[in-house]
Structures are given as structure tokens and as C-alpha cells.
């Protein structure tokens, strides 16, 4: 038995697909396809918040410099305000690295719900639903590899569908 994918809740082997406490023998899956859900506004709002957090200190620094120029105070006060504004702008450096990392992860995970479906015992069944696009892609590809390498029980069995809202089978080689 070959394991193609294994994590805390999903395991794809050469004989079966297990998701949480459910298991489906690959020989009984006659068609597999995926669906892409609508965008999650929560994820998009989170990305916007990260962008605002990145821009906030820079905007504050620029406003401080503009304020120092606008006030027409003594040279010492102007230098102090500009210096403080520049320090605020520089303080975003270490924070920016952490924020950019969170932003990158948000794009890797994606902003949609992904579902994997199959025809099992003559009816469609949802095998998996996740919002993590990277993980979904790894699992879907593992199922593809497992079904391609599984012995063909019948010519019409074990086909993999393309993306979309309904199955579009591809014949096995």
C-alpha cells in the first residue's frame, strides 16, 4: 500500500481515501471532481486590515513631517517632530516582516471554500470541504495520482473531473 497524502484528518492511499472518520475505497469511486465556492469576505477583510496595519505607521510619519513643516516652529522643534516621525516610520520594519508573512499565508490558503466530490455507489457524495487552497490542491492531486495508479476495475471507473460546478470526466489512460 502506498500513501500519497497524510495529515491529521485526511489520508490518501493506493486503496482508500479517509477524511476524518469516513473512508471510501478508491475502487468504489467512479468519478471525482471539485467545486470552488464564492469568495470569503472575512478573508478579504483580514487582508485589508493587514494592509492598513502596514500603511498606518508610514502615514503617521508622513503626517508628522507635514505637521512639522506646517507649524513653522523653531528649527529644534521641527527637527524633533521630523525625527519622531521618521522613527515611527522605521518602527514598521520589524512589524512589516510579520505582517507580510501573514499576508503571504492568507494568499496561499486562498479566499474560497473548496469541495471535492465523487460518485460513490451511484450517487454524488462530498468527500472534503476546506478553505485552505494549498492543502486542497495537495489532497486533490494525491487522489488523482492514487486513482491513476489503481488497477482499472472497469473502463468507465476511476475518472477525474476538471474544475467547475459539475463533473466533467476524463478517461483513464
TrEMBL record:
InterPro entries: DUF6232. Residues 151-173 are annotated as: Disordered. Keywords: Membrane, Transmembrane, Transmembrane helix. It comes from the Bacteria. The chain crosses the membrane at residues 44-71, 77-100. The keyword Transmembrane applies. This is Uncharacterized protein.
Amino acid at each position: 500500500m502506498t500513501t500519497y497524502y497524510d495529515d491529521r484528518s485526511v489520508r490518501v492511499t493506493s486503496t482508500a481515501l479517509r477524511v476524518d472518520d469516513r473512508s471510501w475505497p478508491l475502487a468504489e469511486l467512479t468519478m471525482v471532481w471539485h467545486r470552488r465556492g464564492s469568495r470569503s469576505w472575512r478573508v478579504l477583510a483580514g487582508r485589508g486590515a493587514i494592509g492598513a496595519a502596514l500603511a498606518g505607521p508610514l502615514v503617521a510619519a508622513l503626517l508628522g513631517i507635514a505637521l512639522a513643516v506646517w507649524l513653522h516652529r523653531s528649527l529644534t522643534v521641527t527637527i524633533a517632530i521630523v525625527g519622531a516621525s521618521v522613527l515611527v516610520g522605521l518602527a514598521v520594519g520589524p512589524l512589516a516582516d510579520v505582517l507580510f508573512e501573514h499576508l503571504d499565508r492568507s494568499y496561499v490558503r486562498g479566499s474560497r471554500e473548496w469541495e471535492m466530490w465523487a460518485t460513490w455507489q451511484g450517487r454524488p457524495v462530498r468527500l472534503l470541504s476546506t478553505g485552505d487552497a494549498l492543502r486542497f490542491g495537495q489532497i486533490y492531486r494525491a487522489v488523482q495520482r492514487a486513482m491513476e495508479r489503481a488497477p482499472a476495475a472497469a473502463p468507465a471507473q476511476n475518472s477525474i473531473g476538471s474544475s467547475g460546478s459539475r463533473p466533467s470526466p476524463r478517461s483513464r489512460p
